[in-house]
Input
Amino acid sequence: MGLNESLKGRRQVPMPTTWPKLADSLVRSSDSKLRSQALALALTFGDVTAISTMRAILIDNAVDLALRREALDALLKVKAVDLAPALQALIAQPELRGQALRGLASVDDAKTPVAILQLYKRFSADDRRDALNTLASRPSFARALVAAVESNSVASADLSADLVRQLRNLGDGDLIDRVGKVWGQIRETSADRTKRIADYRNRIMQVSGPAADPSLGRAVYAKTCQQCHTLFGVGGKVGPELTGSNRRDLSYILENVLDPSALIGKDYLAHVIATTDGRTLTGIVQSEDKDAITLVTANETLVLPLAEVEERKPSTSSMMPEDLWSNLSDTEIRALVAYLAQPTQVPILATPDNIAGLFNGRDLTGWQGDLTVWSVESGEIVGRTKMGLAQNTWLRSDLLLRDFRLTLQVKLVANLGNSGIQFRSVVLPDAEVKGNQADVGPGWWGKLYEEHGRGLLWDKSGEAHVKIGDWNTYEILAIGSKIVTKLNGKVCVDLDDPAGLRVGITALQLHSGGPTEVRFKELKLELNPPLDPSP
Output
């Protein structure tokens, strides 16, 4: 409904006299989308009966996920009372976690830090970023966050430079001192910045050892830069687009990263805003009207009613902190510079920070493929061809893996067609994929095939271990030249393959031929696992 969009930034408006009669027909509509939008509008009009309905939608796992998200948006917009317990419970659900974590920043509840921190290690990189930004939004939350860093429950390296600056913006002297002890002091003089630029240039140019790894650089970029900048079509839009910038010039990189406040375009001038509910926000004012300010922060876009803005002031500093690289090793910095110089996108090296994001359970972020046949339904990756395919197609993960264990659930609906799980594979120029494939399908379950390579590497079938038409646990272990696969706990492949690739991406296949529907869920990655001596 356009009405809901037009009322953004207004918690409540007077209820029109005609609304009760109109609402009755709207909320009884057979169109679930229309019902949800009508209920959201009812909340804005102060219709108390709508709140209980929206709460029921939010906590009902059987309701369509899109409607639950809309219900959560609507309840957050009107600041529904006693919402914190529901939000704290929702952070256990991956499909709503990010939205719930961001929502908790707007609710001052003492139990929020504990609820977030006890699940923090399970979160993906994106969810951790949302969690940390919420914990940095209020002094009481921030004290719990810093205590977690002091006790090593949260790694100090997880505190990015922009997050540390947000903690400083809270204006709590004791908190600033504690942050300095666990993270380091912020340098602020121009002489320090000039010296630092020269120092980093020397560290980057005086290279010894292996060449810089652009795939590691992409992992570093995702952790430190991607939330604000877009590169190769991926990332946020808080800061300037980087794809067309002068990224191959080391001087350009050093000056913009290490002295970002030297020249700030008016479109990127940061503001620090204190709200009446106790939050401190740092972001760029995207727009403003008589009712609200639209503020773009490092992890979300907020529409703040003007009545809730207690104080606002422009910052003399760029949104990008000067100490962005302070917690990076020389290897990581060189890799980042190498990645920024790449003319095209490269795979992202799997690290402990990003493996939880292999599949986020919500959408195909981090995957590439034909979206007419690949989708996400109810937390499952679905490959579906109603008429069949003339040639193979793959859904490709961006993660680059070396030694790993991948465990997932796979269901080949009706046991028709053919699929597989590619690993340590490379993408060919025509979007075909070359590499090992753990096979799925009648006559192929449990076999190992090298696609666009040596063909069948392991011809013994694992069909006897398969639950036909049901979910099956597939495990792939690749360590050095050793490859072991299991179906439902039973060994299928046990191969030493010195000639095989030792690094590559993962991909899910839909094979050419007749109609096929294959589903994958519960994808779990472990890096550098031990080799079981008796598989």
Remarks:
- The longest helix spans residues 190-205.
- The chain has a mean pLDDT of 85.
- The two ends are 57 Å apart (CA to CA).
